[in-house]
Design goal:
This protein is mainly β. The chain has no helices and three strands. The chain has a domain of 38 residues. A three-stranded antiparallel beta sheet has the order 2-1-3, with no helix packed on it. It starts with a strand and ends in a 27-residue tail after the last strand. Bound molecules: zinc ion.
């Protein structure tokens, strides 16, 4: 089963999701729930060549529940 990487346009969070069968719809971002996500082609190395580790940019929202 293919696992695709998506990047959220809204918060730049990169997340992986399992894509089942013909379900091509964009999943919601793990971090902010936005569906403004782009699928990243894991086999394509984008030009530039610098090893940017964008995975891990996802910082959890600070929970401001302590009031
Ligand atoms: Zn997001």
């Amino acid at each position: 089963m293919p696992i695709y990487e998506y990047q959220c346009k809204k918060c730049n969070c990169v997340f992986e999701t399992l894509v089942l069968g013909k379900d091509n719809r964009a999943p919601a971002c793990d971090n902010c729930g936005s569906r403004q996500v782009v699928r990243k082609m894991s086999f394509v190395n984008t030009s530039g060549g610098s090893a940017k580790n964008i995975s891990g940019q996802c910082s959890p929202k600070p929970s401001s529940g302590f009031s």
